[in-house]
From TrEMBL:
It comes from Mucilaginibacter achroorhodeus. Residues 1-27 form the signal peptide. Gene3D superfamilies: Carboxypeptidase-like, regulatory domain (2.60.40.1120). Coiled coil: none annotated. This is Carboxypeptidase-like regulatory domain-containing protein.
Length: 390
């Protein structure tokens, strides 16, 4: 009798804990604080305060105070922006209610002649077109993006070097009618090198949901899922959840030398032949398990990707078999992206955010995605299903 009672108590307790876990996992916190002028210590009203790449933000009141609620636990980049002051950024870990008081903003001097030059620049439309093509991207979604205030962009083109650079002192307002977001993007720097074929940009983004009818929202959700599945964010999130091997295949990019082509499979996969030499070279792919390239770090919630070779990443949506024949084992069917290491480690957090983006180069679809494919960190598809190809 006593034994049965203990079993019943344990069972009920187990169920209680099971139902409690989602409440703990999805606990939300409040971040509040104040913003002041570094020079005189006075409060700064109307400053934009937000968590980078999220929909979470607010404005400071007349006393320079702010409050952001509904923040899921995680690591974020806190951004404070106000015209006439240098933008402030700080990495914050939110796992409970947090208070940050006395954020100091440094005044800056805006060069007024830049506005005059921009307004009288006869090549302005050409530079703006170049900027939009690279900043918004060239996908079908980019056609549904519109920058409502391009006049705030400062763009300079060095003709002899074929380099376009730019930045903004205030938020670019981008309406993405493909995904249903209004993005306020503070562009710190932009560089397009037409000779080296390199593009880089860096800034802070704040998202707002557009208003739409049920039919529009359904289409937006379809497009959001098409962007999310197979993206670097999706990959890094399933890596931290220990499920990457069920959705993705990761292989090192390296060269294998073979001495003979007697094997017909080798013949079909031959990439390079050097004269009449008996030596042949071919791309060699060996599928890696997550533990081979993902490693923990001393910082809680931060992980590292490292490997002696660059990594090619293949994505297989639900319903698409992973088994590959001998030919495709060495091909690129299903390849969605690659990590080309610039630094020896790529650091990322469990939000799927790369913490040192300058330390890696992304290729294939990952390298082509731009602001038109940008989603807030808080976006998580409600269903796991195969989406239409873009």
């Amino acid at each position: 009798m006593k034994s049965n009672l203990q079993k019943l108590i344990k069972k009920k307790l187990g169920l209680f804990i099971l139902f409690l876990l989602p409440l703990v996992s999805f606990a939300q916190s409040v971040l509040q604080g104040s913003v002041i002028n570094e020079v005189d210590g006075k409060p700064l009203p109307d400053a934009s305060v937000f968590l980078n790449n999220t929909t979470l933000g607010s404005k400071t009141n007349a006393e320079g105070k702010f409050r952001i609620s509904g923040i899921p636990s995680g690591q974020y980049e806190l951004i404070v922006s106000l015209i006439g002051f240098k933008s402030y950024n700080q990495v914050v870990t939110i796992d409970r209610n947090t208070e940050i008081n006395g954020v100091k903003m440094t005044p800056t001097v805006t060069l007024m002649n830049e506005v005059t030059v921009s307004g009288s620049d006869k090549y302005r439309s050409r530079k703006l077109r170049m900027f939009k093509e690279q900043f918004l991207g060239a996908s079908g979604f980019s056609n549904d993006c519109e920058i409502s205030n391009p006049e705030i962009l400062v763009l300079k083109f060095q003709n002899h070097q074929q380099v376009l650079t730019g930045y903004s002192n205030d938020f670019l307002e981008i309406e993405n009618k493909a995904t249903g977001y209004k993005i306020k993007y503070l562009l710190n720097n932009f560089k397009l090198d037409k000779i080296a074929l390199n593009i880089s940009y860096e800034g802070y983004a704040f998202f707002e949901e557009l208003k739409g009818d049920p039919k529009q929202k359904e289409l937006w959700e379809k497009h959001r899922r098409a962007i999310y599945y197979g993206s670097p964010t999706h990959f890094l999130r399933v890596v931290t959840a220990g499920k990457a091997d069920s959705d993705f295949v990761v292989r090192p990019f390296c060269i294998k030398k073979i001495d003979t082509l007697d094997n017909p499979v080798y013949k079909s996969m031959l990439d390079i032949r050097l004269g009449n030499s008996a030596k042949y070279y071919m791309l060699r792919y060996d599928t890696l398990t997550t533990s081979k390239y993902v490693h923990p770090t001393s910082n809680r919630g931060v992980y590292a990707i490292s490997y002696p070779y660059d990594l090619d990443v293949f994505y297989f949506p639900p319903g698409v078999p992973h088994s590959l024949d001998a030919y495709h084992e060495h091909g690129n069917r299903g390849q969605i992206g690659s990590f080309d290491f610039i630094n020896s480690n790529i650091f990322f957090d469990y939000n799927g955010r790369i913490l040192n983006p300058d330390g890696v180069s992304l290729r294939y679809r990952w390298g082509r995605d731009r602001v038109a494919e940008l989603l807030p960190l808080g976006y998580n598809p409600p269903l796991r299903e195969q989406t239409a190809k873009r």
